[in-house]
Design goal:
Blueprint: H1 4-17, H2 27-36, H3 55-66, H4 75-88, E1 92-94, E2 110-112, H5 114-120, H6 128-152, E3 155-160, E4 163-167, H7 171-187, E5 192-196, E6 205-206, H8 208-213, E7 227-231, E8 236-242, H9 251-260, E9 267-274, H10 277-281, E10 292-295, E11 302-304
Parallel strand pairs: 8-9, 9-10
Antiparallel strand pairs: 1-2, 3-4, 5-6, 5-7, 7-8, 10-11
Length: 315
Amino acid sequence: MRDKQKYLEEAQQAIISLGLPRAQQNERSALCLLAILNLVPGKEWAEASNPLIGITPIMDWAREHYQKDYAPNTRETIRRQTMHQFVAAGVAMYNPDDPGRPVNSPKAVYQIEPAALALLRTFSTADWHNNLTTYLAERDTLTARYAKEREQNRIPVQIAPGKAITLSPGDHSELIRAIIEDFGARYVPGGTLIYAGDTGDKMGYFDAVLLSELGVKIDSHGKMPDVVLYCPKRHWLLLVESVTSHGPVDGKRHAELAKLFANSKAGLVYVTAFPTRALMGRYLGEIAWETEVWVADAPSHLIHFNGIRFLGPYL
């Protein structure tokens, strides 16, 4: 029987043969490939299977079967530096059981792509070379098809007449769409979208030039609010947080945003958006004073948290 190191070497050889970049030709990616094939020591490649498996279960699997203990903070590295590339190359599928599942869902899973599974089951056999040649010749078509299917599940957002972007599927993106299309139309007529975050790539839309003209230069998108709208008529910047799983504009977040946009030539307006009043009720004790609250299921109303003015900046 092959030892565990031999399985890892063979998995790395398979990854190289599949044409993945050098950054994925390593032990981490080899373990991920073995995990999505459930190729435990003692099994032959012909016995590879296709379980639905998430990132944490992959780490648990590697620990149980190959005694590779990954630290919890390795989770994002595995997702971004291995599984993302597997999906992009058409080797694995993302959420094939529910393509509309939010990108940041804890239920997110991966599965080996059927053609890749059929190929890998012939690894190290007499049929491998011919099967690999055929697979590689057809892979671009497969990759394009899966990319198209992923695109069909994205959420379209109208950002200006005749202009639209798409965001990753999920409740968070649905609320961002409501903020842009409904809140923006009601309370920032004639306004311009500067930024819309995306749970998938963290930057669904960003007009960095316009924001720079308003005095704000951003180095990291990680601290940006979910939506930034500019109202040229009033010369306001509206900083909107979309709350579906994370918190509202509380005191700490207010201070962070005030610091991030400290050089803004436009007045700053802080807004927390909720999908429902029921969810808003869970956060009432946290919302910062001198901010606004908008609820998507009651779009014609704004809730003002104290202060000397309603919907306006505090200079």
